[in-house]
Amino acid sequence: MLVDASASMLGSTVVNVVRRRNLPDEVKINAEKWQQAVSTADWLTTQIPRDSSFQIYTFNTRAAPVISGTDGQWLDGGDRDVLNDAVLQLRKVVPKDGTSLYHAFQVARTLRPAPDNIFLLVDGLPTQGRKAPRRTTVSGKERLEHFEEAVNTLRASVPVNVILFPMEGDPMAPSAFWKLAIGTGGAYVSPSEDWP
User: Fold this and answer.
1) How would DSSP label each residue in the chain?
2) pLDDT in tens, 97-120
3) What was the pLDDT predicted at 126?
4) Which domains can be identified in the chain, with CATH numbers?
5) What's the pTM?
6) What does the pLDDT average to over 71-86?
């Protein structure tokens, strides 16, 4: 599971994101959109079969496992304590910085054995690629290029299931993520604000 923890997860409008990004961490953690993403991840963990393995990474300008010290490792889906700890640690993450989907997909590529499914919880196209941008703004065309760069790092045989929490001002995101999901044999969902 790859969970977008960039600053844009603080709100569904640019104005709300700008307002919240300078507030205390406690306020950021409680942002409605972020809480919906965390609740969605929590719900997904309840669907993990007991005989399977899982891993949860958050990503913004870099990617990191929610449970410290487990980078590159699969966790036991049958161990309810591990599942609960993963969700507990996710609840402590403070959304910040930009979005690099490249680093998220790169992490998924390094896992051994390779994942048989990726669940991507995201709100829009990335604001950077492999490297940090030189400018503070990024155009829609550049965001789409960063997206394509990230997609090119994926293993062709892994379905990507996308759960999109849309951000205003990112009109190309829904179709790009829909194409990614369909093209890889995954599913695409854009849930209502009151789900799950």
Assistant:
1) -EEE-SGGGG-SSHHHHHHHTTS-HHHHHT-HHHHHHHHHHHHHHTTS-TTSEE--EEESSSEEESSTT-TT--EETT-HHHHHHHHHHHHT----S--BHHHHHHHHHH-SSPPS-EEEEESS--SB-SS--SSS---HHHHHHHHHHHHTTS-TT--EEEEE---TT-TTHHHHHHHHHHHHT--EE---TT--
2) 999 999 999 999 999 999 999 999
3) 97
4) 2-186 (3.40.50.410)
5) 0.96
6) 97
